[in-house]
Amino acid sequence: MDQESIVYGCIKDVTSLYSEAERRHANRKALLMLPTSDEWPYLSQEMFSIPQLEPGPDNYQTEVVHFGASYKAIEYEWKNWVEKFELLLSNMYWVSAVVHLETELSGVHTFTWLCEDDCHIPGMDASKIHCEWSREHALI
């Protein structure tokens, strides 16, 4: 059987900081710019919950875009996947993003992006973004 990797997480945005409509529109546009099919490693529209332009009755203060996908051994191409994910983040409004990578061989990894300002604004300098990762050891 092939090595399966699961990638999932969420991007959070606090809609009360700037124009809510502008933020929703920009984030939706960034997600819709993703291809429906992509060269390896995949980062496509289908793996994301694309927010509606109008907030739903369940939304409070934070818009949460969740995502997930199953891959064949994505950890070998992880640097490329992260580069594509960070390119997506560069085009969005957000306050934090978390990606979980579950692998059969090397356990679970968690990557967290935090903006040092109130929020990330599309096109903002990447030097104001902090990324950290942690690893849970697999039980053998």
Please provide a written account of the structure:
This protein is of the alpha+beta class and 140 residues long. It contains two helices and five strands. The chain has a five-stranded antiparallel β-sheet with strand order 2-1-3-4-5, with no helix packed on it. The longest helix has 13 residues. The model has no long low-confidence stretch (mean pLDDT 84).
Give start-end ranges of low-pLDDT stretches. none
The biggest beta sheet is recorded as: 5 strands, antiparallel
Number of strands: 5
End-to-end Cα distance: 19 Å
**Strand order in space, largest sheet:** 2-1-3-4-5
Q: Total helix count?
A: 2
Helix coverage percent of residues?
Answer: 10-25%
Order of helices and strands: EHEHEEE
Instruction: Give me the secondary-structure category.
Output: alpha+beta
Taking Cα atoms only, what radius of gyration do you get, to the nearest Å? 15 Å
Oligomeric nature of the chains:
single chain
Report the β-strand fraction as a percent range: 25-35%
Mean pLDDT: 84
Shape, please? globular
Question: Briefly, what is this?
Answer:
This protein is of the alpha+beta class. It contains two helices and five strands, in the order E-H-E-H-E-E-E.
Fold topology:
Layout: E1 4-14, H1 20-32, E2 62-72, H2 78-90, E3 96-103, E4 107-115, E5 129-136
Antiparallel strand pairs: 1-2, 1-3, 3-4, 4-5
List keywords for this structure.
140 residues; alpha+beta; 5-stranded antiparallel sheet; 34% strand
